[in-house]
């Protein structure tokens, strides 16, 4: 089976969500279903049907998280010696060669990507252009506006 890269932080976040769903949400829904069942006729019991629907969504999310964790290859970038090379999990500061505008991204797994937190997916065009390059190298990224060159300013293992 194919393993998918995931940072330690990403795995921890999924494990915390799984714990919350199994220890808090699942028992509450079970209780809510029991209470709704006591209200009478199940055919016209909106509370019961809503709780059952919610339970189905929670159980699906639990299975999804368990599958993702089972198929994850957890990579601790802090345990990898710093070489100045862009690899999965590193935090990379890049500068647009034309404008000298600087941005910093962490390269993470697809499930962890969140641009607002400066976390980009390893399969994104920017990450694919950066992976394997060294500090000081220039990476060319194909964007909707054309090709953009970025210089790799710094690579950090955080």
TrEMBL record:
Task: Answer yes or no on keyword DNA-binding.
Answer: yes
Domain Transcription elongation factor GreA/GreB N-terminal as annotated: residue spans: 5-74
Q: Could you provide one GO biological process annotation from this protein's UniProt record?
A: regulation of DNA-templated transcription elongation
Q: Which GO terms describe its molecular function?
A: DNA binding; RNA polymerase binding; translation elongation factor activity
Give the record's keywords alphabetically. DNA-binding, Elongation factor, Protein biosynthesis, Transcription, Transcription regulation
Q: Which Gene3D superfamilies match?
A: Transcription elongation factor, GreA/GreB, C-terminal domain, Transcription elongation factor, GreA/GreB, N-terminal domain
Q: Residues in domain Transcription elongation factor GreA/GreB C-terminal?
A: 83-156
Note the superkingdom of the native organism: Bacteria
**InterPro entries reported for this sequence:** GreA/GreB_C_sf (IPR036953), TF_GreA/GreB_CS (IPR018151), Tscrpt_elong_fac_GreA (IPR006359), Tscrpt_elong_fac_GreA/B (IPR028624), Tscrpt_elong_fac_GreA/B_C (IPR001437), Tscrpt_elong_fac_GreA/B_fam (IPR023459), Tscrpt_elong_fac_GreA/B_N (IPR022691), Tscrpt_elong_fac_GreA/B_N_sf (IPR036805)
> Which residues are listed as membrane-spanning?
none
Signal peptide range equals: none
NCBIfam families to which the protein is assigned, alphabetical: greA, PRK00226.1-2, PRK00226.1-4, PRK00226.1-5
What this chain does, per the entry, is described as: Necessary for efficient RNA polymerase transcription elongation past template-encoded arresting sites. The arresting sites in DNA have the property of trapping a certain fraction of elongating RNA polymerases that pass through, resulting in locked ternary complexes. Cleavage of the nascent transcript by cleavage factors such as GreA or GreB allows the resumption of elongation from the new 3'terminus. GreA releases sequences of 2 to 3 nucleotides.
The entry sums up its family as follows: Belongs to the GreA/GreB family.
Could you tell me which PANTHER family the record lists for this protein?
Answer: TRANSCRIPTION ELONGATION FACTOR GREA
Name used for this protein in its record: Transcription elongation factor GreA
- Per the UniProt entry, what species is this protein from, by scientific name? Pseudomonas saudiphocaensis
